[in-house]
């Protein structure tokens, strides 16, 4: 009762599809999933999730008016898997919803690469089932046709879900490969402005030194009384008391102050500048 289906999906992608129990079960036509009992991959066969899927399957057996629809209620899970060989065993245990019939056994699935570049996968399914009850009303050929049709539709639906994702990934990769690569020119580091030559700096400094300092008081500007208010002889130099009757006394006082200041000037250190100097 073996049958084969070839799908346009890569082997590695289909292996991921068949080793996901819930997605694999929801792709079966006529199967209603009631519950999924999770089994972690560490506890599953060969690191594959051994989730137990519980549900109801309506299976049409026979052709035309002689055929009938039988409803089975039961569970299915991945009982064994070998990734290197690409084989897995799906255990099935179900009973008729009405009556005393049952359906139990394994679906042995084998995945092999196909196509010139391995872009396709050939899937072979060998049902090893034991039937009882109402199922015995139909011959072997009827059951073979019913299981083959159900299996082909199941694989096509499962492959379609993963084919879309694979095509999207291939399209994205193709777009990325065809996009032009824009070369970014390296930006040369900006160099700080060159320092001015030392001779120019020295010339500017010499020019500053050579420039004479502006006198504090211009020669043409009038001398204010406030500027000489601290000078005891300011009145004498201005000539305001030339005809003053106190001139002899002022002259004597002036000589006395000059002599005293000159003695003080001699006592200072050589090179020291005085605050007042008589030319």
From TrEMBL:
Compositional bias of kind Low complexity: 212-222
Region (Disordered): 187-224
Annotated Basic and acidic residues bias: 202-211
Family annotation (InterPro entries): START-like_dom_sf (IPR023393)
Name of the protein in its database record: Carbon monoxide dehydrogenase subunit G
């Amino acid at each position: 009762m073996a049958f084969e289906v070839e799908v346009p999906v890569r082997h590695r992608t289909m292996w991921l599809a068949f080793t996901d129990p819930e997605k694999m079960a929801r792709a079966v036509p006529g199967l209603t999933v009631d519950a999924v009992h999770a089994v972690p991959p560490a506890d599953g066969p060969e690191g594959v999730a051994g989730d137990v899927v519980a549900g109801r399957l309506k299976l049409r057996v026979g052709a035309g008016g002689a055929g009938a629809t039988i409803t089975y209620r039961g569970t299915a899970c991945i009982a064994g898997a070998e990734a290197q060989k690409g084989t897995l065993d799906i255990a099935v245990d179900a009973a008729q919803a009405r009556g005393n019939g049952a359906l139990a056994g394994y679906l042995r699935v084998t995945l092999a690469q196909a196509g010139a570049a391995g872009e396709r996968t050939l899937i072979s399914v060998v049902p090893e089932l034991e039937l009882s009850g109402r199922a015995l009303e139909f011959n072997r050929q009827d059951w073979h046709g019913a299981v083959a049709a159900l299996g082909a539709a199941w694989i096509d639906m499962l492959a379609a879900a993963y084919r879309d994702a694979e095509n999207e990934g291939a399209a994205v990769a193709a777009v990325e490969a065809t996009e032009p690569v824009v070369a970014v020119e390296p930006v040369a580091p900006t160099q700080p402005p060159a320092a001015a030559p030392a001779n120019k700096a020295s010339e500017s400094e010499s020019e500053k030194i050579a420039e004479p300092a502006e006198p504090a008081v211009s020669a043409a500007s009038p001398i204010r009384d406030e500027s000489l208010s601290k000078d005891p002889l300011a009145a004498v130099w201005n000539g305001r008391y030339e005809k003053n009757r106190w001139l002899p006394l002022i002259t004597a006082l002036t000589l006395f102050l000059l002599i005293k200041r000159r003695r003080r000037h001699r006592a200072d250190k050589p090179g020291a500048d005085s605050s007042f100097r008589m030319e």
